[in-house]
Amino acid sequence: MSKEALISISIIAVYMISVNLYVRHRSKLESAGDVDGFAVGGRSFPWYMVMFTILATWYTGSCFTGGFGYAVSFGVVALYDTTQVVIGLVFLYVFGPKIWKWGKIYNLYNLPDFIRLRYNDKKLAIVVTVFTIAIGFPWNMMAFKTFGILIHSLTYNAIPVNVGIVLSVIFILSYSLRGGQKSVVTSDFIQGLVMIFGSLGVIFFLANKLFGGFGPMFQQVAAKTPELLTVPDASYWSSIILAGIFGSFCWMEIFNRMFVARSPRELKISTAGAPILGSSMYIALLLLGVGCSLIPAVAADPESGFLTVSAMTGGPVLLGFVGIIVLAAEVSSADSGLVTGGFVIADALIKPFNPKLTDEQLIKYSRIIVICIASLSGFLAMFEIPMLQKIAIFTFEYIVNVFPIDIIGLLWKRGNSKAAWSGFAVGVIVTTLLKLFPAFAAAHFGSWAPGILGLFCNIVVYVVVSLLSKPDPRVNELFDSVKNASFETV
User: What distance in Å separates the CA atoms of residue 288 and residue 283, rounded to the nearest whole number?
Assistant: First the structure.
């Protein structure tokens, strides 16, 4: 291994070991059966920890690989990603406190718990669990692939991508198994701080060093590749933004984040600041990607572009610090998805068939499942996979079909189990058919994404079936209890 590789990998190794030891020290569970601590971190975190945890979960390491690469290849079209994320975070300001109240009053840990309670339908909760876990699995693969690319680049290609993937699996499991969401939130708070402020500093440094600032950079892009500064297909661009907005509230790990705050007020404060910090970082990153398309080495390998220009500009020291930033973003997303997925599978799919399962056994099963998911996704990440951002768009087009079940169900009393089943089935079928027959979809609906058309049909069916059904008095009681509850002083 070269001297440069040793410098960069040493920087990131010191960071990883330090964070690991700190998190393990601070996030020990109260007992072997502390389900509340393992599943929702004890619902005890202040606003600033929740804010950076939300940011760290929302922005993945693939933003610095797949997102940056997408901007290099397709230009400002890539800004769809930051647009949908920012709007999603703004909506979180409205939805988050409501979700928190449901969780506190009825001791809910995640989306399947809410569905079982809201619709009084265990089968619907199981189907949504399987669907969301399956749709979310590619994100685990993308996370570990990003880790592999990162370690490979940090060592100047000395360590193979697959070895980097194995190391990342070991690192995440080493602390996340210990404290569950207590470990995850503690770790993600640190990672969120590093990701937001560290990346902002590096992005502006690179823009000035490479182009003399963002202004001169865009002048060069406008002169050489002006097509990268336009959005050629407004319908498609709008539809993937909408898919991102609606889909944001359907991921298990995002829904879970609403339960870790210690009060609705703390959650509302955190979601007020998150869009400002998040958009500042991600817009700057993607715009830098557009400019870096002019660099041949970046154009040749877009998804490694951010690491490439860092090494070109600041050598192994800057590459090491950038590696920490990307690692922080990816670790915080991967650990959230793994721990949330492990607990949800144990709680929603295993416990219903074994009601005598103790809390200690439930946590044990959760840890086993986390190990299995991490190992399988790490193994599959070793194979060649398509451009990461295209996988992200595909998953959002399907996950949006959960939106009527959780968010419309959260806001509207009339929604019921029949409406949820009918709308969900229609939405998934329409999305799939339009994807299977793209020529038909293009002829009749232009370039609108199949997922948005499927969601539209889903919502229409959900609303119609709900209105044609008799209101459920039980649901009125649930809504009244949540409306009348006050936790602002908790």
Answer: 9
pLDDT tens by residue, 300-325 = 989 889 989 998 999 889 988 998 89
Q: How far apart are CA 6 and CA 158, in angstroms?
A: 10
- Contact in structure between 298 and 105 (CB atoms under 8 Å): no
pLDDT digits (tens, 9 = 90+) for 446-467: 888 888 999 999 999 999 999 9
Tell me the CA end-to-end span of the chain in Å, nearest whole number: 54
Regions of the chain where pLDDT drops below 50: 489-490
Q: Give the per-residue pLDDT at 490.
A: 39
pLDDT of residue 426: 97
